[in-house]
Design a protein that fits this description.
single chain, alpha/beta, Rossmann fold, 9 strands
Length: about 250
């Protein structure tokens, strides 16, 4: 999770453990009162939508599930493209806001999805897995596999090799030490690839930066190019992500 000065305000917390309760409060604020902070996410979400479009025919009635709607950008784009999409978020106010906009949405965590077995063609979790407590990670991935149809695809992103201690802060009211965005996991490509084997064989995992190539000026395009290259090299200054996709076998 990220605050107002952020490169990557992301999805919602993904599990109902005690440590995620405060995350729900934080994301209720961002997703219902300060949704503008999610505009920077569009290049990253556009990349996930591109994966979805490659995997789901628009006329097939395929079900796409997005965990952590943020400002609803992915849901809006999927609907415009003729895809049937369901939002999942643990915060009821966020769910109600998505429903008011005409989207199908359910209040749930990733390890307890209110969906039938083998009913989802594509499940998106962009900047979500890092919020899951260690004890719930295996169960969450098993739940992803359960709801995916055979041949269904799990796609998303996580921060690359984050040093969790670098983003620890102290609450000025209660002196509790916590990660400012609620992250509880750090992933390398190797670790993530091994975990994703629980969903399907041969996960594809790449380090990349999601940059806005729509910048019009030469200076803006040059900055985007530099950031993209630095992210591929895993340089922290570029805030790289790990993008993944895995197909249920």
């Amino acid at each position: 999770m990220e605050m107002l000065v952020t490169e990557d305000p992301s999805g919602s917390p993904a599990h109902g453990a005690d440590t995620s309760a405060d995350q729900t409060i934080i994301w209720r604020h961002f997703q219902t009162h300060a949704a503008g902070v999610f505009h920077r996410n569009r290049p990253r979400l556009d990349a996930q939508i591109a994966y979805v479009l490659k995997h789901c025919r628009r006329d097939s009635g395929a079900c796409v599930v997005n965990v952590g709607p943020g400002n609803g950008y992915l849901e809006d784009r999927c609907r415009e493209l003729g895809l049937r999409v369901i939002s999942i978020d643990p915060d009821t106010r966020t769910v109600e806001a998505m429903q008011a906009r005409g989207h199908v949405a359910h209040a749930a965590y990733l390890d307890a999805l209110p969906l039938p077995d083998a009913s989802v063609q594509c499940l998106v979790a962009s900047e979500v897995l890092e919020h899951i407590p260690e004890a719930a990670l295996a169960g969450s991935l098993a739940e992803v596999r359960r709801v995916l149809a055979p041949g269904g695809m799990f796609v998303g992103t996580v921060p690359h090799a984050e040093r969790l201690e670098d983003n620890q802060v102290v609450c000025p009211h209660c002196a509790e030490l916590f990660h400012r965005w609620g992250h509880q996991q750090s992933f390398t490509p190797q670790r993530l690839r091994g975990l994703l084997l629980a969903v399907g064989p041969s996960p594809r995992v790449v380090v990349r930066g999601f940059v806005d190539w729509r910048r019009r000026s030469p200076a803006g395009l040059f900055k985007s190019l530099v950031r993209a290259v630095a992210a591929r090299l895993g340089w922290g200054i570029a805030s790289p992500n790990i993008q993944f996709r895995v197909t249920r076998g």
